[in-house]
Amino acid sequence: MQAPRGTRDFGPDEMARRRALEARMRSVLRTYNYREVQTPTFEDLELFLAKSGPAIRDEIYAFRDKSDRDLALRPELTAPVMRFYFRDLKMAPKPLRLFYHGPCYRYDRPQAGRYREFWQMGCELVGDDRPEAHAELLRLALELFEASGLRRYELRVGHLEILRSLLESVGVPRAEQSPLMRLIDKKELGPLEVELGKRLPREKTDRVLRFFEASNVQDARAFASGKRAADAAAHLDRVLSALATLGGDSSKVRVDPTIARGLEYYTGLVFELDAPDLGAEKQLLGGGEYDLSSVFGQPPVAAAGFALGFDRTLVALERAGHAPQSDDRVDAYVAALEAAALGPVQRAATQLRDRGLRVELESRPLPLKRFLSRASQIRARSAVFVGAKEVQRGVASIKLLETGVQHDAPMDAVGDRVASLLQAK
Ligand code: HAM
Asked: In a 10 Å sphere around its CB, with 0-12 CB exposed, 13-18 middle and 19+ buried, how is residue 331 labelled?
């Protein structure tokens, strides 16, 4: 039997690489004082239907439990975290900086970099909507990728109010914009032209299509009139200038006023990060300002955040030849060469473990040749063994596998000796 379509098993080497990347990212999140939260992997179906857009219904793993509750495996974590916030964290001092790392489920068509079970690492910033706060969020997104070791990626930043004001100004009221926003999100300009053409005169359709060539705040602003668009452009300007002050590689940042995002809870600043080398599934991260308060019948609260596709990031790193390295080797492989030595090697293994070393203890006596061949097979850093000669002399033999050099140590000092030999290397 195989794992279900779109899911994967991860072996020890792969897990070590995943954990190595996760550790790097966690240490970046820590330097920004984001603190981890965890929510359930399944939620009431309603939570995701309310504001994630109709497309989510087809993409979701929904089921009914034995008590007839309609539930869904979470396709993302922003709605769950905001449910948690409105239920339990509302009184916490703000701004609140939260992060998560966990599995998500979408009924997507599986292909390289796209799975039905995948991991997101993401952040939510609640209670601060100043451009300076948004700039810091973008800086954090960039820094997570810097820390990952990926070299080629691009962060595109836009603002939904510019796009929405433009559509409104050509005659598409906000309440009717969703289908167009979906086409814009998928960059399906052909179908967009057809849809616009059904309701607008040619010159207005052209105006919208020309907008897709705007690549800076000024160009974009020229397309959208009105206060909301002007405020949005000013906000975007300030975000970019604060981001420049916070540092990082500005050549990786580009204004893209045509970002529409697929989920319907976004309200203002939006951004996406792509790895151009990945082809179709190149989007590694997405996020922006959003409002989910109405789902919970609560007054609005400033909120913005992003999530990165952890698996996709690993695919990008592997393709670029920068897969995270982890020194996931056993420090000492320990065995008795005969039955009389079993007790001494068991005590030696405990000494080694008490010093924090990683130890694999052989449960039965082995001939020296077999022992050493297995030591190199499992890529042990050292092989510690006790045979008849060693029992007589009250010592253990320690062989360092990289150099082949062999040492003896009194039985009660094996732990210290192995620890210092491994450290000295
Ligand atoms: P999203 O763009 O739907 O945003 O997903 C974020 C990232 O998850 C994507 O950029 C992609 O890398 C990864 N991803 C999505 N679907 C799959 C899949 N089937 N297989 C592998 N990776 C995938 C959100 O989910 C928002 N909640 C982000 C956010 C947080 N906005 C505000 N706060």
From this structure: buried
